[in-house]
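User: Fold this; tokens only.

Assistant: Input:
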Amino acid sequence: TVGGGDSAGCRSIWHPAHSEEAVVDRIMGDIYNMLSQLFMYPEEEIAGLILNGHLATALDETAGIFPSLVAPAERLKSETVILTKQSDPATELEVEYSQLFVGPGHLLAPFNESIYIEPVNPMQKGLLMGDTVTELKELYNKHGFGVPEGFTDLPDAIYVELAFTAYLFYTGKNAGDFLNSHLKKWSGDFFEAVKNAGSGFYAALAGYAAAVMEL
């Protein structure tokens, strides 16, 4: 579900905690958890949360806490409204997602870390199943992170890394180290690839996610 890591629907992302640091970690965990789900394949549950107003509520709440998210949140909300006006918005989401991330055919914006940081040669993107995947498997196991049911891609898929980041925030571990050693090393190129592939919901989502990475 989009929003709180243990809540149904898109309940308020604000969860009372015992200290200011814990409150911030919880909020950041909720934001990264939301991003993880938004970058998953938009099956019925995910599509419903995007299209029925839950996402807009969460975006308003995050923008209310972090001013730098106001503009990208508004753009994402606008693209969501445009999407809902299509004759079959759920199918539109699936088509856009497939063209960008999973195929078939040429991918406009592959969403695996190893493709961006393990180049075969200067003229090519990298290949899957390299050292990055092995390193991430070991890191997930070390921190007790079990890949949730429904995560069918490799450990270096964007939504898996976002989910792990959320997990680190929720458990009070050092999410900053993981962000600096993994997500921030390649996500900028990924987000640019999504935005360069055209306008639409996922281009706006990439802009919002890029702004989150700067928090």
